[in-house]
C-alpha cells in the first residue's frame, strides 16, 4: 500500500504561468513547480532566453510539461496587447483553456536614482515592469484563471519596500505599492487568491554590473543579513510554493530576506 501524497501532490497537473520565468527566481519557481508535477509555461522578453530556459528545464525534467512564450512588457503602448496574446497563447493548448496559477517575477535591471537625477520619463520607466505590468496582469487573471480559492495570482516585490536605503526612493515607492496592490486585488479577484512574495537581496541576473562589483555588493549585503549570506533563487522558490499550495492564504505578503529586517 503506497503512502498518501495529499501535501506533495497539491500542484500535480496544476496549470501555471510564470511571467519572468527564464532566469533567476522565476526559473527556480519553474523548477520547483515542475518537480511538483505541474504543467508550466514560462515567459520573458527575450525569445532566445526563453528557448534556452525551456531547453534547460526539459533536460533537467525529461518527462515534464513545459512551454515558453516571449512577451516584452517594457512598452506602455503595447503592454495590454502583449499580455492578452501571452494569456491566449498559453491557454490555447489547455483542454479547459483556463489556468490555475499565475506568478509574476518579471523585472528589469535594479538601479538607484538620486533625487537630482529624477525626471518624469525615468520615474515612469522604472515602474513599467515592476508596477504597471503586474497590475494590468490582474485584468487577464480575471479572464483566464479558474475562479476558485485553489487558484492564485502571486506578485513579487522586494524588501526595499520596508527597509529604505539612500537613492532607492523611486524603486521603493513602486515596491511599497505592490503591498497595497496585493491587498486590493485579493478583493477584486476573489475567490482567486492574491498574495505577494518580498525577497531581500538575492543573487540573480538583475544585478546589472560587472562580476567584481556584484561580488562586492553582495558581500556588503551579507553583513546586513542574519543568515550571513545573500539569498539563492532555489531557496526563495520555496516561499512561492507555499503561497501556491496554501488555499487559506490570501492578501498576504511573505517575506524571505535572510533576516535582513532584523539587522
Automatic annotation (TrEMBL):
Q: Give the matching SUPFAM superfamilies.
A: NAD(P)-binding Rossmann-fold domains (SSF51735)
Signal peptide region: none
Record InterPro entries: NAD(P)-bd_dom_sf, SDR_DHRS6-like, SDR_fam, SDR_PhqE-like
Provide this UniProt record's keywords sorted from A to Z: NADP, Oxidoreductase
- Tell me the Pfam families matching this sequence: SDR
List the Gene Ontology MF annotations in alphabetical order.
oxidoreductase activity
Family statement: Belongs to the short-chain dehydrogenases/reductases (SDR) family.
Q: What is this protein called?
A: Short chain dehydrogenase
Amino acid at each position: 500500500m503506497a503512502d498518501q501524497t495529499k501535501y506533495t501532490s497539491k500542484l500535480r497537473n496544476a496549470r501555471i504561468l510564470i511571467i519572468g520565468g527564464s532566469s533567476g527566481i522565476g526559473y527556480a519557481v519553474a523548477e520547483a513547480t515542475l518537480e511538483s508535477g505541474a504543467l508550466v509555461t514560462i515567459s520573458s522578453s527575450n525569445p532566445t532566453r526563453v528557448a534556452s530556459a525551456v531547453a534547460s528545464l526539459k533536460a533537467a525534467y525529461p518527462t515534464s510539461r513545459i512551454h515558453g512564450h516571449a512577451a516584452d512588457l517594457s512598452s506602455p503602448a503595447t503592454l495590454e496587447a502583449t499580455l492578452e496574446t501571452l494569456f491566449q497563447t498559453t491557454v490555447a493548448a489547455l483542454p479547459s483553456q483556463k489556468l490555475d496559477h499565475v506568478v509574476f517575477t518579471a523585472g528589469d535591471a535594479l538601479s538607484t536614482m538620486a533625487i537630482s537625477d529624477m525626471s518624469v520619463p525615468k520615474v515612469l520607466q522604472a515602474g513599467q515592469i515592476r508596477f504597471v505590468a503586474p497590475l494590468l496582469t490582474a485584468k487577464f487573471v480575471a479572464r483566464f484563471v479558474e475562479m476558485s480559492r485553489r487558484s492564485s495570482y502571486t506578485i513579487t516585490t522586494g524588501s526595499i519596500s520596508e527597509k529604505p536605503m539612500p537613492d532607492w526612493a523611486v524603486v521603493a515607492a513602486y515596491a511599497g505599492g505592490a503591498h497595497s496592490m496585493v491587498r486590493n486585488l485579493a478583493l477584486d479577484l476573489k475567490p482567486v487568491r492574491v498574495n505577494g512574495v518580498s525577497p531581500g537581496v538575492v543573487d540573480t541576473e538583475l544585478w546589472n554590473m560587472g562580476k567584481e562589483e556584484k561580488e562586492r555588493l553582495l558581500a556588503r549585503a551579507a553583513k546586513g543579513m542574519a543568515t550571513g549570506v545573500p539569498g539563492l533563487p532555489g531557496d526563495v522558490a520555496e516561499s512561492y510554493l507555499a503561497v501556491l499550495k496554501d488555499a487559506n492564504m490570501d492578501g498576504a505578503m511573505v517575506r524571505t530576506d535572510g533576516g535582513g529586517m532584523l539587522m
